């Protein structure tokens, strides 16, 4: 009976080490991604950040004035944020 208790703890320790190793690998991947910086070539438009922010401000004003539907607002918002490299949602 004592042997089975030791074996059970050994399995738990192995699982814990595996979880810790997976966590460390995930952290290393995130650190590498941060160190690489943003991928400027992926789907970004030729508009500058200032232009996109102005476009977003105008879009928000149109939405507040109820001159654009909620669906159109969300579509345009997603597009602008995507071009800015900001994940939404």
Determine the strand fraction and express it as a percent band.
under 5%
Overall mean pLDDT stands at 81
**Envelope shape:** elongated
C-alpha end-to-end distance: 53 Å
Percentage of residues in helical conformation: over 70%
**Count the strands?**
0
Number of distinct helices: 3
Q: Specify Rg, calculated over alpha carbons.
A: 24 Å
Q: Assign the structural class, choosing from mainly alpha, mainly beta, alpha/beta, alpha+beta, or little secondary structure.
A: mainly alpha
SSE run: HHH
Low-confidence stretches: none
Folded structure, characterized:
The longest helix has 35 residues, at 2-36. The chain starts with a helix and ends in a 5-residue tail after the last helix. It has three helices and no strands. The chain is mostly helical and 89 residues long. It is elongated, with a radius of gyration of 24 Å. 74% of the residues lie in helices and 0% in strands. It has helices spanning 2-36, 49-64, 70-84.
Features of the shown structure:
89 residues, mainly alpha
Topology summary:
Layout: H1 2-36, H2 49-64, H3 70-84
Helix pairs in contact: 2-3
Task: Summarize, please.
The protein is mainly α and 89 residues long.
